[in-house]
Amino acid sequence: MPQTPPRLKVDAITRRFDGRDVVTGVSLSVAPGQVTCLLGPSGCGKSTTLRIVAGVDRQDSGRIIVDGDCVSDDERHLPPERRGIGLMFQDFALFPHLSVGENVAFALDGGLRRNRERVGDLLERVDLGSFIDAYPHQLSGGEQQRVALVRALAPKPAIMLMDEPFSGLDNRLRDDIRDRTLAVLKEENTAVLLVTHEPDEAMRMADEIALMRAGKIVQRGAPYHIYNNPVDRAAAAFFSDINIVRGVSHGALTETPFGQFLTPGHADGTPVEIVIRPQHLRIDFDREGRGPNPTPTDGVAARAVVERARFMGRESLVEFRMDYDSTILKATVPAVFLPRPGTPLWLTLRRDRCFVFPS
Ligand SMILES: Nc1ncnc2c1ncn2[C@@H]1O[C@H](COP(=O)(O)OP(=O)(O)OP(=O)(O)O)[C@@H](O)[C@H]1O
């Protein structure tokens, strides 16, 4: 099947501030109807990348291509309003003296009078149809955010750039608005580049995540892929707590208190880290000083005592002090499971969920 050509292509952009590389060789592409999330910690260069795509800042090198046409390179630099791009930032400000409908119609030829149908339809899609003649101060923060979204969508931008657009909202409201926003963006077949530092937001919104660190994209892929095949320990740790079990590779095998792990590709004598998320540890009870028998899928059990256990709402988090070297490992259980501190239990690691990295 032929691939849809990208609507937005960012080609090897680089930006320096005060002699410091803030964005280095960032490339990505976004197809119509696709949401790509630039995800990374504060200061990693996400917003700078987005501002360059928007045209409010200019790269030192690299190109921005929209629908096959170069909108910015060493020679040319189209201003934001000529790039077919919609912008939505956290500090979206509605014009307080204009009605909701007038705000949405602001960038449309003929204003609200000539575009009432489209404006009404867009507002309807975010459940604000009856607010067309209301004023911003009569709306809650979440409602205003929805107005800002449809205002950005009204001119039918081919590309929508969003910088932490939901961060001003409280948690429950945010989930709802994210879902509605996503639905409208998909219906409009908009290519979306969304900046966030929250893994949950990226997992919820993105078709593709571009994980950024120190100005570079370190990994790109579907949320499922990035979560389950992190490129390194930091990528794994960005999405959840992690546990680390250390060992040294010999003959493509590493001995640990949880049994042997296959560690191909690591030279003899290389220290390695076996990384596993808390939900992938198995907990088993103590059978008069013995644990469960080894299995090929879970390896050998290691004895631990409960350090503390907390109920987190959706799951219980249990911290264990391991007999083998007193390190703490964390396990989560999707149930109420609150063993007393000091209780001996046995842990195994799901082999198919372990990642091996050089330490
Ligand atoms: N105009 C500027 N002049 C100098 N330094 C800047 C400028 N804009 C950004 N920077 C620096 O570039 C780095 C990356 O900033 P950027 O805003 O792109 O990061 P970010 O990943 O979006 O972070 P956050 O989530 O905190 O906004 C930061 O160290 C910032 O201080």
Q: What is the mean pLDDT?
A: 93
Q: Which ligands accompany this protein?
A: adenosine-5'-triphosphate
Beta-strand residue fraction: 25-35%
Question: What portion of residues is helical?
Answer: 10-25%
Q: Could you give me the name of the CATH homologous superfamily of the largest domain?
A: P-loop containing nucleotide triphosphate hydrolases
Keywords:
359 residues, alpha+beta, Rossmann fold, OB fold (Dihydrolipoamide Acetyltransferase, E2P), 2 domains, six-stranded mixed beta sheet, five-stranded antiparallel beta sheet, 20 strands, 22% helix, elongated, cell membrane, membrane, Mo/tungstate-bd_C_term_dom
Report on the architecture of this protein.
The chain has helices at residues 46-54, 100-104, 111-125, 141-153, 171-187, 199-205, 223-228, 233-239; strands at 8-17, 20-30, 35-39, 61-66, 69-72, 85-89, 159-163, 191-196, 208-213, 216-221, 243-250, 253-256, 259-262, 270-276, 281-285, 302-311, 316-322, 328-333, 344-349, 355-358. With 359 residues, it is an alpha+beta fold. The protein folds into two domains: 8-237, Rossmann fold (3-Layer(aba) Sandwich), CATH 3.40.50; 241-358, Nucleic acid-binding proteins (OB fold (Dihydrolipoamide Acetyltransferase, E2P), Beta Barrel). It has a six-stranded mixed β-sheet with strand order 6-7-8-3-9-10, with helices on both faces. The chain has a five-stranded antiparallel β-sheet with strand order 13-12-11-14-20, with no helix packed on it. Helix 4 (141-153) packs parallel to helix 5 (171-187). The longest helix is centred in the middle third of the chain and has 17 residues, at 171-187. The radius of gyration is 25 Å and the shape is elongated. The protein starts with 7 loop residues before the first strand and ends with a strand. The model has no long low-confidence stretch (mean pLDDT 93). Bound molecules: adenosine-5'-triphosphate.
